[in-house]
Amino acid sequence: MASKAVELAAAQRDPSDASATATRAAEFRAGVRATFPLVVGAIPFGIIFGAVAVNSGLSAAAAQAMSLFVFAGSAQFIGAGLVAGGAGLAVIIVTTFVVNLRHALYSVSLAPHMKHLPQRWLLPLGFWLTDESFVVVIDRYAQHDRSPFKHWFFFGSAVFMYVNWQLCTFIGIRAGQAIPDPQSWGLEFALPVTFIGMLVPALRSRPVLLSALVAGAAALLLHGLPNQLGLMAAALLGVGAGVLARSREAKT
Predict the structure, then answer these.
(1) pLDDT digits (tens, 9 = 90+) for 117-172
(2) 36: in domain
(3) Is residue 184 in some structural domain?
(4) 250: which of 2, 14, 68, 201 lies 20 to 30 Å off by Cα?
């Protein structure tokens, strides 16, 4: 009787439910696959952070908590350095906030695609937003296939990055006591190489190319500004140049 009831329920189930579930899973897996090359580039960065954090005076629990609740690589490195230098809590909070202001630009770009989502989606995805996930997610949203489940692609990318970062931080913490100077490994090259790999495929139009050139030149010229303000200024100038070029292109 029980087996017949199960068969009857399965027969009466709306086929669209199964199709939607399969589509969500496919989007999630696609997000993971698209993010995999960028995750590989982030592995040494995460390990070095864990080692640097404990060598800067943070406890293992505090270093892991920083990855769990801050989840922002560059801000975490700066925060660990400020802790080592004896900076106050207010200075650490303000500095990491300024460094992460670029995420506001990411959010502006993603907002039109995600405005229909409820808060239970927006809050975790906003927290998990990283440079790497932004690159693959904005590219997915640019594809005109009208899938209603593209946020599951974002979810797959974000979860993959988050879990990888936690594991790499843990490995770095465990190895930190045995490595007197983890930065001497010279693995920092992985991060700029990863960002170059993220940038090049996006250079598909003149406005984007101009935006990248202006941002790159500004970053070099303003490199000496304190608290990573040069990075934020370069991002704003790059975005401004891209918007101006796109508006002029639309008028011609």
Answers:
(1) 999 999 999 999 998 999 999 999 999 888 999 999 999 999 999 999 999 999 99
(2) yes
(3) yes
(4) 201
Distance CA 110, CA 117 (A): 12
Q: What is the mean pLDDT of residues 242-250?
A: 80
Q: How deeply is 91 buried, as exposed, middle or buried, from its count of CB atoms within 10 A (0-12, 13-18, 19+)?
A: middle
Residue that is written with structure tokens 């502006």 in the block: 108
Non-local (6+) Cβ contacts of 159 within 8 A are: 32, 128
Assigned domain for 168 exists:
yes
DSSP 184: G
pLDDT at 9: 46
Q: What is the domain range of residue 91?
A: 29-100+132-198
Say how many CA atoms lie within 13 Å of 107 toward its Cβ: 12
105/232 Cα distance (integer angstroms): 10
Percent of the chain, pLDDT > 70? 83
Residue 10 falls inside a structural domain:
no
Total number of domains in the chain: 1
List the helix and strand counts (H, then E) for the chain: 12, 0
Name, in order, each residue with C-beta under 8 angstroms of 238's C-beta and a sequence gap of 6 or more: 211, 212, 214, 215, 216, 218
